[in-house]
Design brief:
The protein is an all-alpha fold and about 350 residues long. It contains 19 helices and no strands.
Length: about 350
Amino acid sequence: MLTKITALFALTLLVLASCDSGDPDFGRGMAAFEKGEYEAALKEWRPLAEKGDAQAQYRLGLMLAKGQGIERNIGQSLKLLRSAAANGNAPAQYELARIYAEGRGVKKDGAQAVKFMRMTAEHGNTQAQYELAEIYFDGKGVARNTAEAAKWYLKVAEGGSAKAQYKLAKMYAEGLGVSWDNAQAATWYRKAARQGHVPSQYEFGLLNEKGQGVTENFAEAAIWYEKAARSDHAAAQYRLGVFMAQGRGVGKDPVAAVQWYRKAAAQEHVAAHTALGRHSAEGLGTAKDDIEAYMWFSLATMLGDKTAATSQETLARGMTPDQISKARALTWKRLEERKKN
């Protein structure tokens, strides 16, 4: 019994001695760093970094880059970050990718940015995977490679990223980097839409309206258009207006249609201007007003809608010179208001 007590006492002393040891410790350094005690953190991390500890090299590299508790030194910072990256530290690899992509303290180098971004992406860093997909899709620092972009978008999309799901869906819808497949596009748009991704809600609504990749379903399309419209998506506001004006998938409601057209027009959606011109000219969902109709057709024409120009000419034939003068004045007033906003 005495032997056991003696052994336990000796073990306790050994543990206490190790806790009070002056040996460098990464955890102690992290605790000090989080308190803003940078000199204490350096005391712990510098010896570890010199021994090849990748975490310490990464942290020390960041401190040198920012001048935290030590004189700022970009050259030494890069040296430590490269060592950490070579030792497999994913955060260091990502930091180097951003440094070379942005030219922070170094000349911009797309090839180096891609090299380090791929390293950390292969370690499973989802942000790096997404950025690598963007790099290949846009051809930044590398030759454009949509197939490679699709591969990386897929990895992130499978992890639940709505923005990656949206990008992947668009690639399937357009046949970029993958075989054209509206069914796959619909699948990925739906996943992103259900997470509240507004552009995906609109695109999924569009597929339901057109019956592409899914069975044509106006009611379903209207649901998704409304979700996106309520988040100020101009195209969705316009499509919802069309549905309400025609009673497609929803009850016919020209008054509500005009309200949605106005919201879309406020964001300079071209077709919404033309629709408002038509509704004003015909008194659909709003009071019949040739002057206001002329204004909407004028604004749509300025935005490039040639059909609006034709409608404006037809409308003008039945207007008096005074009405046309007032309509033009109203058009310029609206343009000035938009410039202020």
